[in-house]
Amino acid sequence: MGDFPKVGEYMTRVPKSIGFDQSIAKAQEVMRELRIRHLPVLKGGKLVGVLTDRDINLVLTFKDVNPETLCVDEAFTPDPYFATPDTLLKEVANRMAEGKFGCSIVLDHNKLVGIFTEIDAYRALAGCLKED
Predict the structure, then answer these.
(1) Separation CA 69–CA 80 (nearest Å)
(2) At what angle do helices 118-129 and 89-99 cross, to 10 degrees?
């Protein structure tokens, strides 16, 4: 058996992120345009959390919530699961499955370099199952 693949081989590189002080409406616009469900949240260039489509849908169920004035910092999930590009793919996949996480943020020396989502996991699985 050869080397186990690493998450850096399958992650989405340099993902779109959003500032913690941006509006939920802006986050919705970015997600819709890019057809994504997860946005790393940055404050001063540092990762502070992740905003998901589920986070947005939940906060919008509250009465009198205006997505134009509500900021990301009032809806995001702090301290998300993260890995490094060298973390073994099987370790990330296991942790995501155990925690029921839709993504893993990928950091290199505390800098956002990627995101590994369920879609990336499907691509990795397809690559592993591909016949030579």
Answers:
(1) 24
(2) 130
